[in-house]
User: Fold these one by one.
Assistant:
Number 1:
Amino acid sequence: MPKKDYVIQVKNLTKSYGENNVLKGIDLNVERGTMLALLGPNGAGKTTTVRILSTLLKFDGGSVMVEGYDVAKDADKVRSVIGLTGQSAAVDELLTGRENLVMMGRLYRLTKRSAIARANELLEEFDLLDAADRPAKTYSGGMRRRLDLAVSLIATPPVIFLDEPTTGLDPRSRIAMWDIIKKLMANGTTILLTTQYLEEADQLADQIIVIDGGKVIAEGTAKELKGKVGKDRLELAFANEKALAAAQKALGAGVVSVDEKEHSVTIAINDTNEDVKSALDTLSKQKIELIAMAVHKPTLDDVFLSLTGKQKKGDK
Amino acid sequence: MAVQLEFVKKPKVVLAFIDSLIMVKRSSQHIIRNTDQLLGTFFQPIMFLVLFAAVFGGAVAAALPQGVSYLNFLMAGIIVQTVSFGSTTTAIAVCNDLQKGIVDRFRSLPMANLAVLNGHVISDLFRNSISTVVMLLAGLVIGFRSNATLMEWLAIAGIILLFTLAFSWLSAIVGVLAKSVEGVQWLTFIIIFPLTFASSAFVPTASMTPVLKAFAENQPITHVVEAVRSLMLGTPSGGHITMSIIWCVAILIVAVPVASWLFRRKTSH
């Protein structure tokens, strides 16, 4: 069997700020031409990991190799093979979209002619041609993100880091962004994406690593992870504690979580029609009155619930 | 992908120089795009010149050397004052870059990071030169006259440019250290304001209290003002030209490495 071609190799990566251990030994590998999604809540260490991998941050222990270069020793070489799109769109607001692209292209060491030609190509590809000669400060959030991503692609680096590329975007812009990212993947670019959205990782990534509190808590394909999480969820809310307790007893092993405050229980369901019907039948047989119900897809909360057995920590 | 990409292959030093040129272009584009600042570049110097000449002219006239009009006396002072305040744009620009995450973008590129500072400092020279020329023209309109020769004008230009460069680098330090643009404005205000007013920029130092006089006569702004003034009025420079150059070069020798070191440190947390 041929040895796997890993473009990004991270071994036992640690980083702390004083007493605060942000990364407690992260391992990850990304194969050439694939996408790895780093999934986790705010404060899990996603952005710290990306900042280390893209040479912006020093790390304390472990090793990080990108495209064969050691991030700790060959930062300049690493910079010439990566593109980074951060959480806040890092473009020059006073320059136009085109000027931003050409400038960054030149800083990537492209010749002037190449930078101009490539800028034009990207503006067209990212649907920014109409706005190309307007200052970036006049752009909408979605346009800014697209420009930011275009900037990181100006020299067609083989490795791209996308740090929460769709956080804060409206659904339409998010889907437009996904389409662009899918095209990138079709070109064989190796991508490391961070996200808080299970759906995003599911849509895009070949492999998913779930991190929490600076540690990897699960990894696998979207399908494998979802298998662990279960299928859809049915949430049932009751009028009072008595009804809640009765329902908990009646539904038995199917209950995945209980919210005492809201008097609600959540059960995992495999088949929406059958399982909802049987749950409702069970409740009505026992004369337990239901005040609300909802079916939803597994969320990041559910992933964390089933992987760690605790609720996702509050936003930090 | 249709476009075939070609890369510039040159020694590292040359590439770093090209990076600086690219950053100078960027910062200079900012001068033109930032309309508020552009208005300041043109109108503030004219306003200061006219106001000071009108307000202080009568009161100060008696303290001036025989045959020197206040406007002719003021010109050097007001130019140096405008340029001092103008150099704080570097601090604001550096601080802005650091706040807005664009420095992270630059740092993820295979470029020389200090080019960011070079860009702001050099474009500050451009902007301040525009201010100075505007002020001189406005001065000519309202009655400023000078007997300086071409060589003397070149010397004036040289001193002002050197002084701007020195103060822009000082300003770069403030820009890196400040936590916000408001902070920059405060810091530069409490540094530049006393320096320009406790000097011979607007009035002769003769009437100042002994302590203030001692400070005023030995600080860089007075030397620069007196050097420019003597060249404009054709009076003996009394060592001020030499002292100006020594001060500016000394500031540069300290400020350039300090600003660069602070910038590097701030951007590699």
Number 2:
Amino acid sequence: MLKQVTGIQKEMQHLTVVPGTSPSTIQKPYIVDCKGQTDKMTLQRKLEILSDAAKYDVSCSSSGVGRKGDGTGIGNTSAAGICHSFSSDGRCISLLKILFTNECIYDCKYCINRRSNDVPRASFTPDEICELTIQFYRRNYIEGLFLSSGIIHSPTYTMELIYEAVYKLRTLYRFQGYIHVKAIPGADPLLIQRLGLLADRMSVNLELPTAEGLKTLAPNKHRKNILAPMRQIQQGIEQNKEEIVVYKHASSFVPAGQSTQMIVGATPESDYHLMMVAENLYKKFDLKRVYYSAFVNVNEDSELPALPGGPPLLREHRLYQADWLLRFYGFEAGELLSEEKPNFNVLLDPKADWALRHLEQFPVEVNRADYQTILRVPGIGVKSAQRIVRARRNGNLSFEDLKKIGVVLKRALYFITCNGRMMYNTKIEEDYITRNLISVKEKLPFDRDGMTYRQLSLFDDNMVYEWKQAAGG
Amino acid sequence: MEEYYLICEDSLEGIFSGVYDAYLMKMPHEQIHLCLGEDENLRLFAVYRECPVDEVKAAKVAKTVVRRFGQEAYLSLCRAMASPETDKAEAVYKTIVAGLSMKNPMEVMGNLANPYVYRVFELARFVAHEAHFHVEFVRFQELENEILYSVIGPKNNIITFIMPHFADRLPLENFIIHDEKRNIYAIHPAKGDWYLYSGGGEFPEDRLRCSQGEEHYSELFYSFFRSIAIRERENLLLQRNMLPIRYRKYMTEFLMNK
């Protein structure tokens, strides 16, 4: 089964290292000349096809692991991650996000690369991937490699190809930057285990939040197969932690953790459902990140919802806001939504929405309340809360000081007191505060062309209808 | 009440020497101010004094700062001093004074209610942000002799903050980062330590010819940059928020756009 992998050793003999022509005559092990590669399709065309096919994968972060270079190759990683550019959709470009191949034996209804689609197909060779990664990395275009793939022949076969590329990049080209690879459900667990020792992050896409959704839209994929590698990676990470305690130099297994992705708006799940799934993934699978991807209807399949208003970006935005509340603000999904109130408020962010429904807990005294309580105030983020806790050791804080610290007072003022006083004489009453919070225009990331975001208009029936449809209601 | 203005050089050493001299005067700190160069409007009844750079004094101050305030606060002060603002010397000096009078000097940078500490915090934050932007957006071009060459034009003098990152990342490369606003070159020889070079003339144009591969790879990256965007989600405003326009004139993918 692992013939491909062991064959690498042999293949390496064909590669010749170009003698260094740099003034210092120091050889760079990662500049490798791949001879005898005569492919009909140019590298440029391949890159276009295979990055275009990979772009619907959301994950692009290069965070989670800080590693210095060892001086013998190229690359290091930064724990906070580094974005290197931003494309015209405003998303960050951190990793060279490509598919190994966009040929696929599966026929998932939402996917541009499905078998029944008539699109140009291409495949990289492992060396082409290595060359692109190294040359882009040297020029500081990218932070590393994100490698996914369509399924060619079988999951295991595809995984072997990915393994070969990553193995070469790490060993032959001595690349020490960030590598994110997809674990393909159904592939040999041994391959996933080996790949985990080379990659920084691995991810298995959940694709759709429920098993039923998966069954209708991705007939070749099964929930069980998706969760199996996820569990394997989780256990691998835990086991590796123990190994590193015993053997200091044990190589680390998926040090930046694993992530996953769900498509939002292709199936009729509510936000509550999505948040419960995400919370479970964080708690039971120790995921680092769950990504939400607003459904883009690329195939116009009859089983999929038509979205005349474009992808459900506002809904995706609300889910990310709530996701942050789960991970950094100590909230639980059940606090934000419930069966009775299954979707997020279109007009208010989830935190403000929660605060308005729990006015009995407010106002809080900024100079005395504990960190967790301060975190729950709308208009105060993690950084501001940390600064408040630190700054108040040197004396009482005033509203002026809070402003300097970075608190958004026009949102926070209804929920806090400073030295026992509120900023203005305000009513603590749900309707009144809601009205005031909505009149302060929320800063949304997709405020097209600087105009007011269309879906915020309450009186535009068409838009509200689309929103409901997108929300599955 | 007589006010004293110490004029120091615009550099880390210069400002720290000024702080040392200010303490030497043994007068209430409210009466002493540090400034960079001469004010346009000289004050009446104020005494102006030149304060020469003294490496020994500066090193002493730096040592004290690290010992009493810790590395993090020291880094904040260093960052603030990389700012082009002229009130930075005064802010740094008064922050040190404020910190040393605190019960726990390690907490000095948390004391944001103090206006001088806040000013240092503000300047340091801007410098840190700009340095981070450069770690992200610096673009190297490969020259004919395989040297990687990059031009930047930052508002703050951030070159020393980004070099350790690139030196760790590209240990086997000869690379140069050129700050064209200050005409400083940061040079990293392969497998060696990096250093700064300033005061010299510009690089001759013919030495800056790109290698053959350069055009190939920059075109490849440009096509990747275009094809990775999702048309249905186009959002130029968000792109501009994340990647300010002033950086784009140094970036490969935006230069090819024209």
